[in-house]
Every structure is written in C-alpha cells, then in structure tokens.
Amino acid sequence: MTTASHPNNPENEYARDNSVLDPRDFRKALGNYATGVTVITVASENGGPVGLTCNSFASVSLNPPLILWSLVSHSPSMANFQNASHFVVNVLGASQRALARQFATPSKDKFAGVSWTAGLGDAPILADTVATFQCRSADRYYGGDHVIFLGAVEAYSYNGGEPLLFAQGGFGKFVAES
C-alpha cells in the first residue's frame, strides 16, 4: 500500500510546483475512484459547437439545483467555456466509449459524425446519452491548475440507461448486486 502525506500549510494549496506529492502517483491514487464519463459542450462565440470529455462532474445542491465540473487551466477550449452563457453536461452511456475518446482527442472537428441538437444558449445536446443537464454558467472558481465551473441546472433529461464509467485508466460499466 502506498501512502503519501502533504504538510498542512494553506499557502501550498494554490502554489505551483510547491507540493511534496508526486503528481503521477497522486493521479494514480485518484484513479481508484470510479467516475462517470461526460462530454461538456458549449456554443463558441461564432456559434460553432465545442466539446470535451470530462469525468470531474459532480452534483453540488438539490435546492437550488447546482452542479460543478472542472477544466485544466491551459485547455485550448478554456475561453469558449469561460465566455459561454450556458453549457450542457452530456452523461455518456456504456456503449459510448468511442464518443468519449473522440471528444478526449485533440481535433479540428470533434463533432464529425456526431448527432446533436442545440439546447439552452445553443449548447449542443448529444444524441443517445443517458442523461443531460442544461446549465446556466453561474460562477467559476480557481483551484490549483484547474478552473471549477458551477452550473445552475435549468433543464435536464435522463433515460435510465447504463452509464459509462472510468477507473484506473480504463472504461467499464456498473454491475449492480443481485
């Protein structure tokens, strides 16, 4: 079992290159927590669709309905997400591994061959996902090397389908106990 600790110094929380933790090993440890897989989408300032694969999505509050997700600060798509009035969290199904990879890979047109419709703020809603959350961009927070986006959920849908999961560097699916 690998154990690591971090000195309790609040100044280290927002400092770069100041951690005593090995970033690769820390990422490996985090990989033991299974997450769902989403594609976050917005309309760019010129109206074109923008999207990326994300597994840092979480609920924040039921009343009011709030969610969050985070994006690495140096992302080429950062300006699109910071300037958008709305975004959509598209929760992928177990059969959508290829879609997760498509939106995770740098490309000029990540939407090639992808069926979608415009949602609130013209943010793309991907077809055949297990759930969607259409959100107004409510706030953002800076945490280390990421920007945390807070979304006020204005509409949602779900179909009860089987979600795609990600853990330990690979995709999988949920298997319920009998």
Summary keywords:
178 residues; mainly beta; seven-stranded antiparallel β-sheet; three-stranded antiparallel β-sheet; 12 strands; 12% helix
Structure description:
The model has no long low-confidence stretch (mean pLDDT 91). This protein has helices spanning 23-30, 78-83, 97-104, and strands spanning 35-36, 38-43, 49-54, 58-61, 66-72, 86-91, 116-118, 124-126, 131-143, 146-158, 164-167, 170-173. The two termini are 31 Å apart. A hairpin with a 5-residue loop joins strand 2 and strand 3. It has 178 residues and is mainly beta. 12% of the residues lie in helices and 40% in strands.
Instruction: Give the % helix.
Output: 10-25%
Ranges with pLDDT <50 over ≥5 residues?
Answer: none
Largest sheet, in brief, is:
7 strands, antiparallel
SS-based structural class? mainly beta
Q: Tally of extended strands?
A: 12
**Gyration radius from CA atoms, angstroms:** 17 Å
**N-to-C SSE string, H for helix and E for strand:** HEEEEEHEHEEEEEE
First-to-last CA distance: 31 Å
Shape: globular
Spatial order of strands in the largest sheet: 3-2-6-9-10-5-4
Q: Kindly estimate the percentage of residues that lie in beta strands according to DSSP.
A: 35-45%
Mean pLDDT: 91
Number of helices: 3
